[in-house]
Amino acid sequence: MATTALDKKILLERHIGKFIDPEAGSVSAQQWKLKQTAYAFEGVAIGYKSLRISLQKILVDDEVANGLPSQYLVDKCTQLIIDGYLFRRNRGANEKVPSQIAVGTISAGNKDQIELFDAAMFEDKGGVTENEMIRWVNTNMIVEGVQPEDAPCSAAWGMLLHYRETTQRREKFYDTMVPKLVSKEDAEKGGKLQDDGKTAIELLDKLLEALE
Hints:
58% helix
């Protein structure tokens, strides 16, 4: 059963469940600092940031003067979602941290939708090989609660979403991608053994030459 690290009393004392405007002045700034600390302690700070970015992209349009929510309301909606999650988790609910509002794109004659994620959610770890991506997807295929920020790169996250989509895709992953990973790793191990053997032979030649 999932629970928050802080009890409900402390959550309330740190203004969880109450909207705090980060831009409203010194008193509000102190309250927001307490609330931010609670978010960080509960492990939802990254989710809050990502959720806020996605809501802003959907709800705020600088070219429209009226009719769409302001940044103030984006902050309010984001805090409402995160705070509600923390209270539900405190009661034992086992849910993923809210971190993204899906943005779908539909082109003419095509009903397929793609869920887009902000690039800031992916840590730039650099140099992620295909083997490492396949291995990460294989490890996390049936793991609950995996988030975009857990992925070694955006390509690995996209691969996980793709192969999780249907039973047929999962079977294809295990039938084609996993054997591919194993064969590559075997080839790499073989190469290393071959290199080690060459080094050993050269060393033996030098020893024999010294004995002569």
